[in-house]
Design a protein that fits this description.
Elements lengths: L1 E2 L15 E2 L3 H18 L20 E5 H4 L7 H10 L3 H14 L9 E3 L6 E5 L5 E8 L4 E6 L6 E14 L5 E14 L4 E4 L3 E5 L6 E12 L4 E7 L18 E9 L5 H4 L7 E2 L5 E2 L2 H10 L3 E2 L5 H15 L5 H8 L1 E10 L3 E4 L2 E5 L9 E2 L14 H9 L6 H43 L42
Parallel strand pairs: 3-4
Antiparallel strand pairs: 1-20, 2-12, 5-6, 5-21, 6-7, 7-8, 8-9, 9-10, 9-11, 10-12, 11-12, 12-13, 13-14, 14-18, 15-16, 15-17, 18-19, 19-20
């Protein structure tokens, strides 16, 4: 780890924050997306309450990849940071390294295009350059839920979890599309301890002068076994400083604070922990913070997150303000039931420093290239077999003239609609079979609740929350759905 020495950001960094995409097609794609949403749902889109990720969108708004492929972009630094974290015996150092892994993956987006919604049951397999296999599967259609599993041959760490996507229209001076991956991401080590993290909100803008993607707001990383929390806030509030030129700090900068909770405020005692979901006895994840406190305390549930975005943001801003004040640190920590260990500063487009030590530098830190599995050996559910995605990829080939591109795009749209019709029928058959199976289990166990659940829904109002009624069997370990057990 080198000492921090500069304030570097990549060339594509916008002066106001975010990663700029200069291809005019990107801006046109975003403009048409917003226009399509307005036509499709009318005035409801103005409220920001329409989740466009669940809607069928025309293919000219897509990039020629499935979401299953898209999310693997985040893991390019796993061999460098997660292996180092696994080999560290210092809990604080481990947490710093996992946090660096999370931050470093944010800049890896390749396009503003929307990836294709995966077909239920579709899969994807790729490999990191150290040989670590990565497996991704679409496990739910309504809501869309994706599970993933990454484990090196050495078994020194396991990265696994699941997520859904919440997408809204963000209205303002430069209207854009706001998305967030909502779910649980877990790094488990050979000693059995786990670090859990979530991700910030992404805002894609393109109606103004710049076409860019920003990450905004809070996110955090938790090492529950050691009562350690690392809270982050992107685009934090800036102290008032009048400037005739209106200069501000770009939005891709972040502040962070790493602290240890006191025993009086430990996660085990009052569950002020992590990701907006909690787990029932059968291994199903769902959640609502207002309900979670009551249920987690009264029943045999494992709470995994009861903090809102506002609470995480306040954690960072109060710590940074106290740091610059004259108030004694011991008094600060006593008042907040936490021991502040260190502070972080950086930009997801350049670097990540912790107390003056640079953990990640986009110019120098080794980045893995992900190699998709050979199609000759891919299983039949591989998302790359999708005809609509393949047809769109052909349509976007630069050698095509406009007429050829339009003809192939129309063909891709027809193939996409065909697959959606098949998926709706498949979902109906699955649901009918699930209900029948549940009825059989209810009869066989004397009327007790069966291990299969039918309802799935997301609720993200008010913060980092999740409802995911995916059923499972009784688990020996928390956090992991049954499908992710090693």
């Amino acid at each position: 780890m080198a000492s921090s020495d500069d304030d570097y950001r990549i060339e594509e960094a916008s002066p106001t924050g975010g990663k700029v995409f200069n291809d005019p097609k990107e801006g046109e794609m975003l403009r048409r997306s917003l226009q399509y949403l307005a036509q499709r749902v009318g005035g409801a889109v103005l409220s920001g309450n329409v989740n466009f990720t669940r809607m069928s969108m025309p293919v000219h708004l897509n990039e020629p990849r499935s979401l299953l492929e898209r999310i693997t972009d985040d893991w390019a630094y796993a061999p460098h940071f997660l292996m180092a974290a696994a080999r560290s015996k210092d809990p604080v150092e481990r947490l710093k390294l996992v946090a660096a892994f999370v931050v470093s993956g944010l800049h890896c987006m390749k396009t503003l295009g929307k990836p294709f919604n995966p077909i239920l049951g579709s899969t994807y397999q790729t490999t990191l350059d150290d040989g670590t296999p990565c497996y991704v599967e679409q496990t739910s259609h309504h809501p869309p839920v994706t599970h993933y599993y990454i484990k090196p041959e050495s078994g020194e760490y396991l990265l696994a979890g699941f997520s859904g996507i919440d997408g809204r229209v963000a209205w303002g001076l430069d209207t854009g599309l706001s998305t967030r991956r909502i779910g649980i991401n877990v790094v488990q080590f050979a000693d059995g301890t786990r670090i859990v993290y979530n991700l910030p909100r992404m805002l894609v803008r393109g109606l103004g002068a710049e076409r860019k993607a920003e990450f905004l707001g809070p996110f955090n990383v938790l090492y529950e076994a050691h009562n350690l929390v690392f809270d982050f806030l992107l685009d934090p509030p800036q102290p008032f400083c009048w400037s005739p030129f209106g200069a501000t700090t770009p939005s891709d900068y972040m502040d962070g604070v790493l602290y240890r909770l006191s025993q009086n405020a430990s996660p085990e005692n009052d569950s002020i922990v992590f990701t907006g979901a909690f787990q029932d006895r059968k291994g199903a994840f769902f959640g609502n913070p207002d309900e979670a406190r009551k249920i987690a305390n009264e029943e045999n549930y494992t709470a995994v997150e009861l903090r809102t975005d506002e609470q995480v943001s306040l954690s960072v801003t109060s710590a940074t303000q106290e740091r610059s004040s004259s108030k004694p640190s011991a008094e600060q920590n006593e008042a907040t039931d936490r021991e502040i260990i260190c502070f972080a500063r950086g930009s997801f487009l350049g670097y990540f420093d912790v107390d003056g030590t640079r953990l990640w530098d986009i110019r120098h830190t080794p980045k893995s290239e992900l190699t998709p599995s050979n199609m000759e050996n891919a299983i039949g559910s591989d998302c790359r077999y999708r005809e609509d995605v393949d047809m769109l990829r052909k349509a976007l080939d630069e050698v095509n003239d406009e007429a050829t591109r339009e003809r192939l795009t129309v063909e891709a749209q027809a193939l996409k609609e065909k697959l959606e019709t098949i998926q709706r029928a498949d979902r109906k058959w699955r649901k009918e079979g699930l209900i029948n199976e549940t009825e059989k289990k209810t009869l066989s166990d004397g009327g007790k609740i069966g291990s299969v659940q039918d309802e799935c829904s997301f609720d993200v109002s008010g913060g980092q929350m999740l409802r995911d009624g995916i059923g499972g069997t009784v688990e020996e370990t928390p956090f992991f759905p049954t499908s992710l057990q090693a």
